[in-house]
Structure formats: C-alpha cells, structure tokens
C-alpha cells in the first residue's frame, strides 16, 4: 500500500508537469480562435 | 450643521455625498470624477460631520479605517517580534530569565530581555494595542452601519442621471422597444429582487452580504470581551498538579472540594518492530504512543475543621490521556507531563564496617521521612538532616535544590550499644562522608524503590462560551461578507434610450455574467466596464490570458 | 453557461484533474497504510498543501477559464511537492499529542485555506509580470526579480538535495550545543559551515570552512547556503544565456492577459481563502489546543504566525475596500501574503522552535 501510495504521488507530479506545458501551449494559441468566446470581453470598450 | 435638500425633494443629513433617495451627486467637489465612490452609498457618517468636543475627536480617531489598518499592522509587527526568541514561559527554568537570554543569545538576547520582549504578549503596550484595536472595531462599525442602513433602505428605483453615468458598469442602448416586463422576469430568474417605478427597474440581490463586515466585527468584539472576562475572579483556574502513583491530593484551585488519587501512570511506546513504522522509529528513536493516568476522583464529604482528616466520597474512576481530559463540574484535568521512575523509598542496612555484620535494616520514605528509625534492640538511627535534591553550594555546605527526591542525601546519627553517644554519617548516592571522625558502623545502601508521577493541568475556564459565540459570529459574518455579493442593476428608459447601470461590492465577473444572461436576445446592448484601465485590451483577449 | 475553450486548455485541465485524482489516490492509500491522515509530518503536510493548491486552482479555473493561471500555479505546486519530498518520507507513528480527529480537521482546513490564498499569489504574480515596466531598472523590477530568484533557489535546493541523496553523502559531526552538551549531527550535504565547535567524525568527508555559533543549527544553515549557491549558479547561467531579467523573459507569455481579470481573481481567491484559513488555522486550532494543551491560545510561535498571517490578510482586505488599493498594489500584497505563508511553512517549522515543530 505504501508503495502504491508513493507511485501515485510520482504520477501526480509528472501529470502536473505535463499540464503546465499544455497550459503553456494554450496561451500560445493564436487569438482568432477565441474571437467568438463569450467570456467577459463583451464588456470592454469596443474601440 | 445644515441638512441638504436634493432636487428630488429629499432632505439628506449634512455630509451626504449622494442623495439617499435619487442618488444625485451632492458633493460638488466630486463632479469631475468619472466614477463615484459607492462606499457606504455616499451616506453621511458621524465622524465626518462632528469634530468639536474631545469625545468627537476620539470618535473620529478610532472611526478611521486608516487608523484601524495601522493598528492591525502594529499588532502584526509586535506579534512577529515576540517569536524571534522564545518567550519567557518557554525557556528552561534552570536560571533567571536575564541570565538565560544573555548567555544563550549574547548581546541580542540581553537587548531583547531589556526591552521586555521576553514577555511581550502580556506587556502593557501590547495589551493597549489590542484594546485600541477593539475600540477601533467598535467605533468604526457603529460610525458606518447607520448611514449604510439608511442608504440601503431608502433607495429609490429611479436614479439621477449622474448616478447612472458614474457607475462602473454602464451602457446606453438606442432602442425604445425593450419590454421591461420581460427584463423583470429575466432578472427574477437570476434570483434578483426587482422593484419597478414608472417603467424603471432596480434589481438587487445579496444585500445581506453588506452586513457581513459588521457581523464579523461584532464577533471579534465579543471574542475580545471573552478574553477580558478571564480577569474576573473565579472565571479562570490554571494550576499544575503533580501527583505520584498511590498518592491522594487535593486538587488545587478547587478550594479543597475535590481530591484526586493517582492509581497508575502508564507510558507506552511504539513497538520498534512494527512493520509500518520501523523505518521512522529507527531514524528518530523511541516514539511515545500513550501517556495515561488512571485516577480516581473524590469529593470532600461534609465539613471539616482545618487539620481534621477529611472524608472523601468517590465520584468516579477515570483515565486521563493526552487529548482526553477528565471533566467534572467545569473543571478539567489534562495529562501534561510525567516523571518516570521517581525515587520513592531508599533502604539501608546498619552494618559494622569491619565484620560487615548487619544490625537491622530500615526503609526511608523519601517524601515523608521519619525522624527516627528503631532497629534491633539497642540499635537506632536518627535522621538529623535530609536533602531531597542535594548539592554543595559555593561554600561547600550541603543544600537542596528542590523538594523532589532526585538526588537524596541524609545526615544520620547511628546509636549502637558500644557507641551510645552516636556516630554521625553523611550519606548520599554513591558516597559516605564521616565528618566527625572515623566511625565503626555504617549505613549500607540496600536498594531503592521508584514510582511514576503524573503532571496534570487543572483548568476551569468560564469564559469559553463567550469566546465560542464570538468566534461563531465572526465566522458567520466573514462568510456572509465573502461568499455573497451585493449586486444591483438599474434599468431606465430615458429620451428614447435604454440606460443600464450595474454595481457590486465585489466579484464584477459574476455581475457581468448576470447582466449577460438578462440582456441576451434583447435589444439592449452590452454595457461597458468603465474601470477597465486598458482601452487596448480588446474583445476575446481576456480568455487567452 | 457554455464556454469555448481551446483544445489545448481542455486537455491541460483534464491532465491536471487526473493528476489531482492521482494525488488524492496517494493521500487515501497513505492514510490506509499509516492508519492516520497523512498530514502528520512536514513531508505529508507540505505535499497536502501542494495538492490543495492544485485543487484550488482547478476550482478557480472553472470559474474564470484562464489557462495562464495554470502556467503559474502548477509550477508553484510542483515546486512545493518537490520541496516536500526532500524531507523524510517514511510513514511515522503519531505521538500522543497528535492522536485526535482534530489533527485531520485543523491541519487540512488550514492547508486548504493557505492553498486558496496561494492562488491569489499566482494571479498577483501574473499581474506584476505584465504590469511592471521591464524597459528600465526600478525597485519594482528588482523585487519581481527577487521573487523569481527565490523560486529558482527552491529549484536549487531540490537539485542539490536529491543529488547528494543519490550519492548517499553522509558526514557525522560531534559538536557542542548551546547548553554546553556534546551532541551528534549528521550532514547529508558537504559541510561548508559546521556546527558549533564541530569535530568531523567521518573520514574523507569535506571539512567545513568555519563553525557557527551554537544557537544556529549547522545542518540547516548549511542547507540554506547550498540552496542559495545553487540558486545563484542557476540564475547566473540563465542570465548568461538569455541576457535579460526573468520577469522580462516571462512578459510575452502574459501579454494577452487582462489585468483587471487577474486583479479580480487574486482578490476573489483571498475572499474565498480568508474564511477557510480563519476557520482552520485559528478557530479549529483553538478548539484543538483547548483539548490537547488545556488552553486555546498559548503564544506558541506557530500560533502567533497564524495570527500574523490572518492580520496581514485582514489588513489587505481593509486596504482594498477602504483605501482603494487595487491592481498593482493589491498584487504586491498578494505576493507578500504568500511570502508569509511560506515563512510559516519553512522558517517557523524549521527554525523557530515551538510546540508545533514537527520537522
């Protein structure tokens, strides 16, 4: 059980690393993809 | 002080910034600002309107949030300073505090001690800071809650043009066709309370969040009062009871009402071969598993005169463990400390040094030694002096450090038929001195018996209920103020346009989402967030970031 | 409300969630193995803190859908977990004082509160990276760089510790402690500084340059020096290659960030975290202290620092509400707040000795 436990922790650690890279990829995306998004931007001045 | 009459006819108290009813800007100095300050809804506060008497001045001082923040920062800094070196209550009791701080920490320790930081949390100035903070909490809350209440209950649905324009969320739509009844229903679907006047709407939700700060301040004030209650006599007992196995003692702090017998003290440690923990135990050494005192609680039965033997009535047997105190009649006994294998009795044989013939043996109770021990006929031993925790002082005189028999030493006089005047012997562990010349007889060490002692804390704290209520009210207030927001949306028809303004005390994101839901599919255009400091950030980029 | 996310972001949050579930698996299995909630020593507590930071991030991500928050929160969580793993990891038995359900209740609630507050740090940091002008040197660029340097030192600590651990480096010392007693101390890194009046007992081990006064722990000071040194080397290499501040390097990453949104996330995280922190680190703490130590408050250093943290965030909220400290000022405060939380985790646990020190 103790061994399974520490393996799961290693797995989590590794997945967090991968997720960081993926999030990095997400912000590198070109912004046209987001043009039609519904969040929040609506309230900005349209100039 | 003159009241201010607004164009709408409402009479506002002196100091009001926004008309309580219609929201028109009354303070001319703020005319040029793009957004208005919505704190306390622009209502007048006592502290801003009176500044004459000394009471006014004190009131104004403590009602200032700026002063409040300074007090918080000062308490914060002082508290942190108190942790640089251990406080006096946590240092070993082997020497005076002055010596300890200087010897252990050098000049810095000496300075720390001289500045009184070794007892910082009970210093007059620290307590004064806390008291000021309490006053600030009380006065600042009272100063604000009344105008806030007035403003929130007197709100009109239709607000002044300037009020609308100066809200952070504001938009004008060039349409006259919008059905306000539809908007009203949509708002109600978002759980807003909607009021309507002449076709204008005021939608409001979560107003009670505005009272959160006042509720939590009330909780803190009660908590501080609870802390002060401790100084009322009879509210608080804090004693230490050292009790040896087999002993029965009056419990200190109970005025002799309760007695405790220590039946057994148990110390258990983790098995070092335990498969789960063996690795940790190997690294750190023995790990304690349980400290436990098995005790019997007694109550005094009937009245007794001083010196008279008391009659005890048994109340209950109990096990006191760490985290499981014994509770009875507002008193609680906690397992705090222990002493394993404390010396209990010491036995000696009276022998002739040459022949080693024994003339009887005696057992000295180290906590209650007898003045004289009779041995075989004609042989006796008198105890002249007893040092339970013996050492020699600077002059070489034997003294005792404490009453606890950690290192007992005795001066005995041995009376035997051939030495009727007696021979004096100084007996300590592993040494015997004969200060008055060579003796014929000696007391040979024959064995010891030990027993355990439990250190129990005796507490009575009649202030806990108030602290509990204060803490509970604080939590309610802080949750009320943090997890709910007061959101308002004003919708008005003006000169063939639809005006929409929104305000929230926090979480603008949530308000924007609400508005978005309400106006979806209607003729009303999305309003603008006027606080957006960056005109360059365009649509869509938000999500990217 | 339907929100469009990029495939990358969707994948990223899924991976994060699976990682979080894996770590919950770690938590549960370790609980089963040890028979008590794994928050009883420094490794377990710090790991839990890292885990809840990820949890808090996932929660806030679902509110605001901001991938950039992940880019900054997850590395902090990763560093925290890596830092935790440098401490002894074996399952340890509970001493009597910790044998209480309040251990689970108090410690977990306090850690959850701190981790939500840590999200406000991440958002504040993003705000600062974007808003601080990197074109000229200023106090702001200096302090922002100091934060980066601190993060790099943590990396340095992890690298150096695991490096010497892999080599199984050990050096035994005998030394004289502050009460004049001779004691033993084991170093797991080459001793640059030794304990007070030290004598090296391990042959061939590295001899310290000098000894420290008795009130400083030689081993801990040595570790700090190694971490700082490793941090300086790493940072130096970085500067040689990129020839600009770390803040400036990261700036393009956040160029599309809406500052207002970051400000709101940072503030919202404080608003959500503050009540949880109060409940766990003060109220539950007092209840447990009353049961275990017979008094609800005893001015133990850790208690005091919980109070200091609480007072700091109270001041933060008042400054924001009444003095209008929003935006950049608020972001700096969020950073300082996290600094205090780390001070609790590192300095109070390891240096300031009290009833709580379980290192």
Tell me the number of helical segments of chain A per DSSP (H or I, 4 or more residues long): 1
Which class do the helix and strand fractions of chain B yield?
alpha+beta
Instruction: Write down the domain tally of chain B.
Output: 5
What is the largest interface, and how many residues per chain?
B-C, 75 and 73 residues
Q: Kindly, what is the distance between the CA atoms of the first and last residues of chain B, rounded to a whole number of angstroms?
A: 52 Å
- The topology string of helices and strands of chain A comes to H
SS-derived structural category of chain A? mainly alpha
- Uncertain runs of chain B are 533-545
Taken from the alpha-carbon principal axes, the silhouette of chain B is: elongated
Q: Tell me the fraction of residues in β-strands of chain B, as a range.
A: 25-35%
Fraction in beta strands of chain A:
under 5%
Unreliably modeled segments of chain A: 30-47
Number of strands of chain A: 0
From the alpha carbons, calculate the radius of gyration of chain B and give it in angstroms: 39 Å
Largest sheet of chain B: 6 strands, antiparallel
Instruction: Give the total of beta strands of chain B.
Output: 24
Treating each run of at least 4 consecutive H or I residues as one helix, how many helices of chain B? 12
| Spatial arrangement of strands, main beta sheet of chain B | 4-5-22-23-3-24
Give the proportion of residues in helices of chain A.
Answer: 55-70%
Q: Could you please describe the fold and organization of this structure?
A:
The complex is a heterotrimer of chains A (47), B (545) and C (359). Chain A is rod-shaped and about 40 Å long. Chain A is built from 1 helix and no strands. With 47 residues, chain A is an all-alpha fold. By secondary structure, chain B is α+β, with helices and mostly antiparallel strands. Chain B has 12 helices and 24 strands. In chain C, strands 2-1-4 form a 3-stranded antiparallel beta sheet, with no helix packed on it. Chain C is mainly alpha-helical. The model of chain C has no long low-confidence stretch (mean pLDDT 91). Chain C is built from 10 helices and 5 strands. The termini of chain C are far apart. Chain C has helices at residues 7-34, 42-64, 67-84, 101-131, 139-167, 218-242, 246-250, 259-292, 301-323, 328-350, and strands at residues 171-176, 182-187, 193-194, 199-200, 210-211. The relative contact order of chain C is 0.12. Chain C has 2 domains: 7-134 and 252-350, no CATH class; 152-243, no CATH class. Chains B and C meet through helix 3, helix 4, helix 9, strand 9 and strand 12 of B and helix 8 and helix 9 of C. Chain B: Its main location: membrane. Chain B: InterPro entries: Cyt_c_bgen_Ccs1/CcsB/ResB (IPR023494), ResB-like_domain (IPR007816). Chain B: The chain crosses the membrane at residues 67-85, 124-146, 214-232, 464-484. Chain B: It comes from Peribacillus psychrosaccharolyticus.
């Amino acid at each position: 059980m103790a061994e399974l436990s520490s393996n799961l922790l290693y797995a989590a650690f590794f997945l967090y690393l991968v997720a960081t890279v993926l999030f990095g990829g997400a912000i590198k995306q070109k912004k046209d993809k987001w043009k039609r998004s519904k969040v929040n931007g609506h309230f900005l001045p349209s100039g | 002080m003159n009241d201010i009459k607004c164009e709408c006819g409402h009479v506002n108290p002196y100091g009001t910034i926004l008309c309580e009813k219609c929201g028109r800007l009354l303070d001319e100095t703020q005319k040029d600002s793009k957004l208005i300050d919505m704190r306390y809804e622009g209502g007048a506060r006592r502290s801003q309107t009176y500044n004459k008497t000394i009471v006014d001045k004190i009131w104004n001082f403590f009602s200032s949030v700026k002063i409040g923040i300074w007090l918080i920062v000062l308490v914060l800094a002082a508290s942190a300073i108190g942790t640089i070196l251990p406080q006096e209550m946590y240092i070993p009791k082997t020497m005076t505090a002055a010596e300890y701080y200087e010897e252990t920490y050098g000049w810095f320790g000496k300075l720390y001690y001289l500045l009184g930081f070794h007892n910082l949390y009970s210093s007059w100035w620290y307590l004064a800071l806390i008291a000021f903070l309490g006053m600030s909490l009380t006065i600042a809350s009272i100063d604000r809650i009344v105008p806030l209440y007035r403003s929130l209950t007197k709100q009109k649905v239709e607000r002044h043009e300037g009020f609308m324009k100066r809200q952070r969320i504001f938009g004008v739509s060039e349409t006259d066709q919008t059905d306000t009844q539809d908007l009203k229903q949509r708002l109600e679907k978002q759980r807003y309370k909607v009021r309507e006047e002449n076709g204008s709407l005021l939608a409001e939700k979560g107003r009670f969040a505005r009272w959160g700060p006042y509720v939590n301040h009330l909780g803190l004030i009660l908590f501080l009062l609870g802390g002060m209650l401790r100084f009322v006599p009879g509210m608080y007992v804090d004693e230490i009871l050292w009790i040896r196995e087999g002993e029965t003692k009056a419990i200190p702090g109970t005025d002799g009402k309760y007695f405790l017998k220590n039946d057994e003290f148990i110390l258990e440690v983790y098995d070092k071969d335990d498969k789960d923990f063996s690795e940790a135990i190997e690294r750190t050494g023995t790990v304690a598993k349980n400290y436990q005192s098995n005790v019997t609680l007694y109550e005094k039965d009937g009245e007794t005169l001083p010196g008279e033997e008391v009659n005890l009535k048994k109340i209950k047997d109990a096990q006191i463990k760490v985290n499981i105190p014994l509770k009875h009649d507002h008193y609680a006994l906690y397992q705090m400390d222990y002493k394993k294998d404390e010396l209990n009795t010491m036995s000696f044989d009276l022998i002739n040094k040459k022949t080693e013939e024994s003339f009887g043996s005696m057992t000295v109770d180290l906590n209650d030694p007898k003045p004289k021990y009779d041995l075989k006929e004609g042989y006796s031993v008198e105890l002249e002096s007893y040092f339970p925790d013996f050492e020699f002082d600077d002059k070489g005189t034997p003294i005792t450090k404490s009453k606890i028999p950690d290192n007992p030493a005795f001066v005995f006089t041995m009376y035997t038929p051939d030495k009727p005047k007696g021979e004096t012997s100084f007996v300590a562990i592993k040494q015997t001195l004969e200060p008055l010349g060579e003796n014929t007889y000696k007391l040979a060490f024959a064995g010891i018996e030990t027993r355990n002692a439990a250190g129990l804390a005796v507490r009575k704290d009649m202030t806990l209920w108030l602290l509990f209520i204060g803490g509970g009210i604080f939590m309610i207030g802080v949750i009320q103020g943090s997890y709910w927001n007061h959101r308002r949306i004003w919708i008005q028809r003006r000169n063939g346009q639809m005006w929409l303004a929104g305000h929230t005390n926090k979480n603008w994101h949530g308000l924007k989402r609400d508005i978005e839901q309400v106006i979806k599919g209607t003729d009303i255009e999305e309003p603008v967030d006027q606080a957006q400091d960056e005109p360059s950030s365009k649509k869509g980029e938000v999500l990217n970031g | 409300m339907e929100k469009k996310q990029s495939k990358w972001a969707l994948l990223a949050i899924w991976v994060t969630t699976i990682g979080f579930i894996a770590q919950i698996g770690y938590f549960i299995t370790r609980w089963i193995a040890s028979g008590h909630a794994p928050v009883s020593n420094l490794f377990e507590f710090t790991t839990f803190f890292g885990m809840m930071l990820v949890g808090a991030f996932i929660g806030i991500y679902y509110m605001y859908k901001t991938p950039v928050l992940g880019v900054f929160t997850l590395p902090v969580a990763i560093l925290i977990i890596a830092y935790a793993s440098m401490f002894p990891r074996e399952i340890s038995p509970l001493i009597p004082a910790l044998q209480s359900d309040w251990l689970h209740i108090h410690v977990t609630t306090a850690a959850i509160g701190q981790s939500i507050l840590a999200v406000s740090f991440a958002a504040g940091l993003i705000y600062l990276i974007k808003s601080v002008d990197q074109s000229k040197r200023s106090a702001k660029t200096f302090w922002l760089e100091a934060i980066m340097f601190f993060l790099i030192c943590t990396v340095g600590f992890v690298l150096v510790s695991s490096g010497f651990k892999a080599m199984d480096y050990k050096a035994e010392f005998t030394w004289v402690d502050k009460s004049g007693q001779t004691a033993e101390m084991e170093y797991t890194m080459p001793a640059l500084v030794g304990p007070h009046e030290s004598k090296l007992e391990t042959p061939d081990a590295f001899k310290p340059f000098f000894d420290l006064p008795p009130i400083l722990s030689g081993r801990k000071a040595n570790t700090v020096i190694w971490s700082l040194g490793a941090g300086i080397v790493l940072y130096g290499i970085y500067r040689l290659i990129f020839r600009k501040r770390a803040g400036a390097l990261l700036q393009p990453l956040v160029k599309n960030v809406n500052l207002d949104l970051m400000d709101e996330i940072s503030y919202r995280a404080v608003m959500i975290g503050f009540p949880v922190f109060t409940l766990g680190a003060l109220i539950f703490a007092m209840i447990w202290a009353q049961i275990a130590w017979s008094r609800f408050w005893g001015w133990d250093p850790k208690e005091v620092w919980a109070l200091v943290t609480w007072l700091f965030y109270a001041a933060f909220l008042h400054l924001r509400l009444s003095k209008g400290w929003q935006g950049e000022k608020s972001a700096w405060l969020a950073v300082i707040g996290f600094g205090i939380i780390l001070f609790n985790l590192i300095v109070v646990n390891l240096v300031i000795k009290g009833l709580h020190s379980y290192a």
